[in-house]
Design a protein that fits this description.
By secondary structure, the chain is α+β, with helices and mostly antiparallel strands. The relative contact order is 0.20. The longest helix has 39 residues. The chain folds into two domains: 47 residues; 143 residues. Helix content is 21%, strand content 31%. The protein has two helices and ten strands.
Length: 209
């Protein structure tokens, strides 16, 4: 049987250092993990989908489609557009979209766009406060044009829609066409009315001021 001998000073120094290193390393790892969890928690809080959006809706976050059927007044063509949030977080809408109607060979039709009613169909004219749309929710726009009762030069269903806070246009094919009127009806028929972006389709059809 071998004999036990007391550790030498050199051995005691090694044991002491190693015994202190492991608790220090453990505490350092716990602190690092806690810091990561705190950063992740803060990040989720900052970018989470909340009722108050922190960024404006832009191309890449939304898509523009034909909205619900809205009918139209006598001698008027009406359209609705839906702006659908396809991103994973809420975004905000405020103001008016910009429209371009393209005719043959991709040339814009010489139409004028107004932010007031141009016919018999009521349209909202007061821009609401900025509002947020959650994922898969929508904002709406109402578009109306007097009918071309004396004829038209061409019609088109191809439009481009640009959101207020963006420069990139989104293409859309309308269910029903927009016409370029000729003759006496051109004076009123070639003015296309656009409502502000609203949180519901009903809100786009406000009273005529």
């Amino acid at each position: 049987m071998g004999r036990w001998s007391a550790p030498t000073p050199e051995t005691r120094r090694r044991v002491g250092r190693r015994g202190l290193a492991w608790p220090a390393l453990f505490l350092a790892l716990v602190g690092a993990v806690g810091g990561v969890l705190m950063l992740r928690s803060a990040a989720v809080h900052r970018v989470g989908d909340t009722p108050r959006a922190t960024r404006a809706c832009r191309a890449g976050l939304v898509e523009v489609t034909n909205g619900p059927y809205v009918g139209g007044a006598t001698q008027e063509e009406a359209h609705s557009l839906a702006i659908i949030n396809t991103s994973s977080v809420a975004c905000s809408l405020h103001g008016y979209v910009r429209l371009v109607v393209y005719g043959e060979h991709g040339r814009p039709l010489p139409l004028r766009f107004a932010h007031h009613p141009t016919g018999g169909w009521p349209m909202a004219t007061v821009v609401p406060r900025s509002f947020a749309i959650a994922t898969r929710a929508s904002g709406y726009v109402f578009v109306a044009q007097n009918a071309c009762y004396t004829g038209y030069a061409t019609i088109s269903r191809h439009i481009a829609v640009t959101l207020p806070s963006d420069r990139r246009a989104l293409a859309l094919t309308l269910r029903r066409p927009i016409a370029l009127c000729t003759g006496p009806s051109a004076q009123v028929g070639n003015v296309v009315a656009i409502s502000p972006i609203e949180p519901s389709i009903a809100a786009t059809q406000g009273p005529i001021p």
